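seq:
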Amino acid sequence: MNSFSEEFEIKLAKPEEWQVLEEVSKLEKEGFGESGLCSANLALLSRCGMLVLLIEKEKITGEGLFLKYFSEDSAILFSLVISSGLRRKGRALALMQTSFELLKPCGIKDLFLTVDPSNKPAMSLYSEKLNFKTIETLFDHFGPGQTRILMKKTLD
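struct:
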């Protein structure tokens, strides 16, 4: 468990922690609506990836799910959510920066993500604060009219 500050801590979730996964699933639904992940999918994905939690006063207030690409030294940020009332206060930045340090010992050199181009706060976080570079625009990525920006960061 990494203590990041007095206000919150960042730790890894375990796939057998069902109560934790239920909390994360609620956070997923808050952030992504019906597209949010259920606890069963979170258990499976956390076994083949890394589920990083942001915890404040014993409550999960943020999460990042990272999945490794097969036969490569790269991963993708599959999901990043911060509780709605706590956004734009540095929590996502802290979670991501700590996640970079957790991914490096796993042999991850490049991290990819997709983001909705209309999500200006996320675009700013990734490009300006975390130095992700735009790779390409993915038109109709999640269906007709659902464009995403593919971004990449090389972990130093």
